[in-house]
Write a structure and sequence with these properties.
Blueprint (H helix, E strand, L loop, with lengths): L1 H17 L3 H11 L5 H7 L6 H40 L18 H15 L3 E2 L5 E3 H4 L25 E3 L5 H10 L7 E10 L11 E11 L4 H16 L5 E8 L2 E10 L16 E10 L1 H6 L8 E7 L1 H9 L12 H4 L3
Parallel strand pairs: 1-4
Antiparallel strand pairs: 2-3, 4-5, 5-9, 6-7, 7-8, 8-9
Bound molecules: phenylalanine.
Length: 344
């Protein structure tokens, strides 16, 4: 038995020396030191030996087990080192190669202006209300105090659809009606929202007019809202947008859905009022239409005009972006020309 142990030991030790990969090493471990391995089996069989042989055999078997375990661990380390070296050799990468840059996208100039708008208005307590681009004629016109055949409809050439009464909105003002009806709780709740979005007009496309453009509508409804609130709010917005010393002026104007109505000019931020090509030597740039919400519109939105009042305004962010960046042709905005878009 002892002899067999010595022979098996010699064979196993010799086999171990020949092993050069971790799969073969694992097999060797399983057959030798593992729970079903021969050495383990022999150690387990000590009890079967005649009593006088047990001690000597057990001692020797344990010695050999220690020796084989040591040899196995040394072999394992060697093989790991060899495999690592081989991996480094075969999977060689050149860390000095220049990286491949990831192209980064950019925000469309209109998106940038719209975000700036939303940010400034949010600071003044105005939430964003999303209204639909596909409107019905009633909401786009009639409920805004422009009944069929009203001459003001001529100012907004309309895209009609084959569906009667379904049109593309010509301005964001129909959103006033929707905001009042959806947020007003039957004319009992105040409102402070902006309504940004795309508008469509059936117009000749020129350097100054596109068939699609953004507007940012604003609407505030409450008790005791007055024109001074409108003026102060717009002036505060202009100061945030164009600088603390921005001057604004209000000109009387006409919109069917506001009364009184005003157009707002800001002092030209290019020439600071001296007069230049951009402001057509007037020193002023028109930035929005505005006014006190017409009683008819309040009523159509569910509010009692003898208790509630409000103001509304509408900005054209593309116009404003053009002025701020000196863009001379509105057609660049939806032309998808990267040479234009990548400048922002
Ligand atoms: N909707 C108007 C336009 O498109 C602008 C406007 C909005 C005027 C709100 C007054 C109040 O020209």
């Amino acid at each position: 038995m002892l002899e067999q142990l010595e022979t098996q030991y010699k064979d196993a030790a010799a086999a171990l020396e020949q092993i050069s990969d971790s799969a073969a090493l694992a097999a060797w471990e399983r057959d030798t030191l593992g729970r079903g391995g021969w050495l383990t089996g022999m150690l387990r069989g000590v009890g079967q030996l005649p009593a006088e042989e047990r001690a000597a055999f057990g001692k020797r078997a344990n010695e050999l087990k220690v020796a084989l375990t040591g040899a196995y661990e040394a072999r394992e380390e060697l093989i790991k080192a060899q495999e690592l070296a081989r991996n480094l050799e075969e999977g060689q990468i050149d860390v000095t190669l220049p990286g491949r840059p990831r192209p980064t996208g950019g925000l469309h100039p209109s998106t940038q202006t719209l975000r700036q708008f939303a940010h400034v208005w949010a600071d003044m307590g105005f939430q964003v209300f999303r209204s639909r681009e596909v409107e019905d004629d009633d909401t786009n016109f009639t409920l805004l105090n422009m009944p069929p055949h009203h001459p003001a409809r001529d100012m907004q050439d309309t895209f009609y659809t084959t569906e009667p009464n379904v049109i593309l909105r010509t301005h964001t003002s129909p959103g006033q009606i929707r905001a009042m009806r959806e947020l007003g709780e039957d004319g009992t709740k105040p409102i402070r929202v902006i309504l940004p979005g795309m508008c469509y007009r059936y117009e000749q496309i020129t350097a100054r007019s596109e068939i699609q453009f953004h507007q940012v509508e604003g609407l505030a409804i409450g008790r005791n809202i007055r024109m001074t609130d409108l003026k102060g709010t717009i002036a505060a917005f202009a100061r945030r947008m164009f600088g603390a010393d921005a001057q604004v002026r209000f000109r009387a104007s006409y919109f069917p859905f506001t009364e009184p109505s005003m157009e707002v000019d800001v002092e030209c931020f290019l020439c600071h009022g001296d007069g230049c090509r951009v402001c057509k030597y007037s020193g002023w740039l028109e930035i929005c239409g505005s006014g006190m919400v017409h009683p008819v519109v309040l009523r159509n939105g569910g509010y009692d005009p003898s208790v509630w009042s409000g103001f509304a305004f509408g900005f054209g962010p593309e116009r404003m972006t053009m002025l701020m960046h000196g863009i001379e042709d509105i057609r660049y905005f939806w032309g998808n020309d990267l040479r234009f878009l990548e400048q922002f």
